[in-house]
Amino acid sequence: MEVVEASNEIKTHIRHPYVGDLVYTAFSGSHQDAIKKGMAQQEEGNLWYVPYLPIDPKDVGRNYESIIQVNSQSGKGGVAYILSSVFGYQIPKQMEAHVGKVIQEVSDKHDGVVSEAMIGQKFEEVFMNTTQHFTVDNLRVEMQEGEVTVEGDFVAGEQKKHAVQNAQGIIEAVSLVFNGMGVNFDVVDYAEHTLGEGKEAQAIAYFGIKIEDEIFYGAGKGKNISYASINGLVAALNRSF
Description:
Elements: H1 2-8, H2 29-41, H3 76-87, H4 96-110, H5 116-127, E1 134-144, E2 147-156, E3 159-167, H6 170-180, E4 186-195, E5 202-211, E6 214-222, H7 225-239
Antiparallel strand pairs: 1-2, 2-3, 4-5, 5-6
Helix pairs in contact: 2-3, 3-4
């Protein structure tokens, strides 16, 4: 395409069949959601069958990086696809709307396409790196005979407490400590998976909590699922403020 454009000095239209820069790109929220679901079900080697993509872009020398771009027309499906395909964050279905709303605000503010880097940065800033109200520091977790002991320095607003709590599970133990500090909530959604491979792999956990009638989501990373879960729960609590 570059040779043709240089030879005839005519720019190829961005939607030109097969070769246009955006011919395989979807901006519409409904189209993005359909492509996301189709790509998730598409198995390598099988007959290509993805909505709004009549051919596999790789068959004509393209890739999947630009098939979904996010702007003011986009919906939650496009954002979730980028978080999964680019950053490895497989957010729960119910979390998609919460994340999509935040990215939509970014798109409206910048009045244009939101880059993949910006989406990843905003997700981590809003849903992961949140320590403004709740924290758990100097954490120690022990598991013995079906019981978990959690010890650490807990902060909830102006309250600070060093606590040792036993429970059947880690989240139950942390929740009991915060409950004792007057912070009441119910866990309504949870998901976890490994992020990365080999020695550099981390665990990541996603939490949806309900406080009164409102649901808040957060995510946390950790060297194992125990620490990731606590970080995710704390992030969700911070989203409530």
